[in-house]
Amino acid sequence: MKRHFGCSRMAPLNAQLLFPLTPFEAFEFGENPPPLPLRIAPRVFEQAHNLGRNPDGAFTIEIHGPAAGASSNGVPRFNLYQRVTQRVPESKYWLLKEFEPYLRVEPPPIGVSIGILQQLLKELGLVLVDVRAIAAWEYICQAWPQLADFYLVDELMEGSIPEYLILIFTLCHLAVWHLTPRADDLLARKLVKLCADGVANFVNSLEGYGLSIDVERDQILLSGLLDAKDAIAKHGARSLSAIKEDDLPRLSTYLILVPDTEANHRAIQCLNAAVHLQGGGEFVWPEDLRDRAAQREIEFENRIGMKPRDAAEQLTSAAFLVPQLLRSYADKTLAGYEPPQAGTQKRGQMRVGSLGK
Is 337 in contact with 7 (CB distance < 8 Å)? Predict the structure, then answer.
């Protein structure tokens, strides 16, 4: 938080971020809500840091009026993590709480990973292209899925933010959990390696971001995340599931994400319908589509509203846009706060909505 707002001390955070949220609050650091004088601001952030206390709980005493926080002795308390992230959503994943289910001897049920993956993709505005659509796409234009995978992985590694690392962890768990077709075996090995590389990149980047506490704690974090990666690799295939296997996304050897738009969903639907599943679990381009290409293209357009080749071109354009979107998201997350300038829109403002009700 100090880095985000360009503070040398925690006093400015204490002076403003502890206030209860108000309905439709337009947060502006240093301005709204009006901060307390620094000399009288309570040292809440320092206390949480020095005690090593998890801020995600109703532990902090409410000092700015009545609140709905939990209380065991009649003293109202609030969740410091929730209050901060409602005003500064870019800080949400830096607590690394999404990694907690993996920091055990065995990884969590696969449904936990799917839930984290779906929530993260929703927040990023992206959708995962499954193996069936990629099989058709690869048949139409073989090189494009491979290139799209390369640029996506490169950006996820380069971004070095918690969101991208947990995305790789959840995809790795999903790939290891399936582990039946040979394609899944190849992808699982690839994702296990990406987890290791991503952990190293992330921990090493903390010093550059000014977020490293000391070398010893960085090593503890590195060791814990690598142990989590090993647990997925060794035990992820037998994780419990309350979800039917047919309802779980199936991954290709290529990782492809596209923006979550209606056009891209139609393209995926079109390509899913364009291939057949053989008994051995492999997807093939049907001979009748190859022999009667023009007629089948018209049939697809009438039924789905899109031809397979048009669908492949749509996903190609969409997939090559994603690295740029991820780069912009990471830059925004890592960038420091920029105060509004006179005569311009207040860039620091954000609507909190009715969260304070």
Answer: no
Q: Does the predicted TM-score (pTM) go above 0.70?
A: yes
Mean pLDDT of all residues in 321-338 = 85
Of 105, 265, 236, which is closest to residue 170 (Cα–Cα)? Answer: 236
Q: Are 168 and 191 in contact (CB under 8 A)?
A: yes
Name 122's Cβ contacts closer than 8 Å, sequence gap at least 6.
260
**Residue 286 pLDDT level (bands cut at 50, 70, 90):** low
Neighbouring CB atoms inside 10 A of 338's CB total 10
Read off the DSSP letter of residue 21: P
CA–CA distance, 315 with 126 (Å, rounded to integer): 12
Name every residue whose Cβ is closer than 8 Å to that of residue 126 and which is 6 or more positions away in sequence.
257, 258, 259, 260, 322, 325
Domain coordinates of the chain in residue numbers? 2-92, 96-334
Phi, psi of 16 (to 5 degrees): -130, -40
Preceding amide of 33 cis, omega within 30: yes
Burial 199-226 (b: 16+ CB within 10 A, else e): bebbbebbeeeeeeeeeeebeebbebbe
Which tokens sit at 175?
Answer: 């790939």
- Please give the distance of CA 315 from its chain centroid, rounded to a whole number: 21
DSSP state of 28: B
